[in-house]
Known about the structure:
Blueprint: H1 2-16, E1 26-30, E2 33-40, E3 46-53, E4 56-64, E5 73-80, E6 85-89, E7 93-99, E8 103-112, E9 121-129, H2 133-156
Amino acid sequence: MKRNLLARLVLMLALSVGALPAAQAGITVTDGVVTITDGFFDSFTQRSYGFNLGAGPYAATLVDTNVLYPFQSLGLEVKTLGGTSMGTLGAPGSFNFTSLAAGPYVAIVSGLPTALIPPLSTFGVTIAPVPEPEIWAMMAVGMGLLGFRLRRKAGGAQPA
């Protein structure tokens, strides 16, 4: 109990003097993958994050990153800017959806950090394109040809 209290006091002191970076929202888009990271020092019910997606299939993943304390509850909903829901999670996990048209979307994260003082809970959301079946087929054919080539090369090198 004393050790836990001491750890919290040291963390609060480090954050107050700037020794550790405060948790902050960050939205990055790299090669079509949207990544949202955020942390909370207080209770919250809902926050929204806007981003753009192209048309096609996507997978959305919500993770409670548990830096210090896990969330009591955590959820995710992805919507079009017009309000059409693309999918919902009531707990950390993932779901697939298809973006029919390129445009703006909103990820709405709702939750309740731990009841500890100060609550410090962080989460991550990733929205990534799912490869088309044709891409998987091309990869399988390429691996098969590579395997055939290696087997043929190994078969011809055997001593007589």
